[in-house]
């Protein structure tokens, strides 16, 4: 019969110091219980990592600094210090950086102090920078502690794990596998210690990944920016498709079921006070009826960012532009140059152009802008814009074009009324689009000032509130 191996108890591990002979250099040293394959002195343990540049000498105790927050334990153990005091000659050297910062050996340092010593044997750990951070010392001392000395308690390891988890130390991110190896702990235990942090980290990572994805970054670009694998980012985004918001969850409330959408006020969630601002509910209804989650929406005249805010709520990806951007998620671009090449393959283009010179008193029309064009040039632009939309849209994609009819003194003398919706309809159908819907989105009567009303009465003229949203589909 074989001899049954004696189980290693906590008393054997931590009960008292034992004398060992180093398996590498033959030097005698003291330590708590060590399995036979771990019976290596501190000097050889460090050299075993490939560092042959250790220096060994004595240094004034008062010149050794302990960096605040760099000690991995809850406090010094008096019994260990007393045991060390009885055998200073057998203790291994402490480890410090080249700048004199303690890395490993706080109990030994205190034992020397209490014995009235003024110097202590030390070794310089050349794997450490001269002026390390507390976290660099913690991970290094924990790694050394896993090989020798009084072991950290499970409570201390758990506390240290939670502090270091997710940090980048010496170019390595401290995930569970790294911490388990450094601390000499089971990875399942480390995962349990960091469960709450990992859940919070996942939530925050998913939030950032989604935000970047909605800005039309690729999964690979997101992975590189956030420091995770592409597979992780892909799983995060897929989880939104399975468990996240859908078009049904974010449908407008109240939902307009007919083709007349009348809104008195702008939803405060979408955009901000801005000349020419439209109710975000118009965009929200458009996306609800004509897009799916993660479809790409383009707004080439984005104004205050109403389309951006709606897309974020409804989980649509977006590319937005304006001649004079007022926020960072809108790029600078002049629509007279056509749609940007990066919009190719989009699923919906929402266009809310300036209605020629109808708001001339309210806007500045810089030279070379859409609003500065003559009526004929504006109508020509509509044709060119329709062609650009057809080029950039994915097959089956939609254009939503919001336009107001025009009356009043700005209308040319040879025309009493300009039905801009009719003009837009002709041009988009003319380049091959299929008309899908004409939705009435009247201007609110609140936009009429008393001066407008009084003047219209004097001239026996009707004011214009007719505004249409035309929907076209690419065949």
Number of strands: 15
Tally the helices: what do you get? 16
Shape: rod-shaped
- Overall radius of gyration: 36 Å
CATH fold category name of the largest domain = Rossmann fold
Low-confidence stretches: 1-6, 49-55
What is the percentage of strand-forming residues?
15-25%
Question: At the first level of CATH, what is the class of the largest domain?
Answer: Alpha Beta
Largest sheet: 7 strands, mixed
Q: What level of helicity do the residues show?
A: 25-40%
Q: From the coordinates shown, what is the CATH architecture of the largest domain?
A: 3-Layer(aba) Sandwich
Overall pLDDT level: 86
- How far apart lie the N and C ends? 84 Å
Number of domains: 3
CATH superfamily of the largest domain: Vaccinia Virus protein VP39
Look at the helices and sheets and give the structural class. alpha/beta
The strand line-up of the biggest sheet is 11-10-9-12-13-15-14
Walk me through what this model shows.
The protein is an alpha/beta fold. The protein has 3 domains: 13-133, Conserved hypothetical protein from pyrococcus furiosus pfu- 392566-001, ParB domain (Alpha-Beta Complex); 197-243; 280-473, Rossmann fold, CATH 3.40.50. Helix content is 35%, strand content 15%. The chain has 16 helices and 15 strands. The chain has helices spanning 10-14, 42-47, 78-85, 106-114, 134-145, 154-164, 176-183, 187-193, 195-214, 219-226, 230-243, 280-290, 306-314, 375-392, 420-430, 450-458, and strands at residues 18-21, 28-31, 56-60, 94-96, 102-104, 119-124, 168-169, 172-173, 296-299, 317-322, 331-332, 346-351, 393-404, 434-440, 467-473. The strands form 4 sheets. Strands 11-10-9-12-13-15-14 form a 7-stranded mixed beta sheet, with helices on both faces. Strands 3-6-4-5 form a 4-stranded mixed beta sheet. A hairpin with a 5-residue loop joins strand 4 (94-96) and strand 5 (102-104). Helix 3 packs across helix 4 and helix 14 (375-392) crosses helix 15 (420-430). The protein starts with 9 loop residues before the first helix and ends with a strand. The model is unreliable at 1-6 and 49-55 (pLDDT under 50).
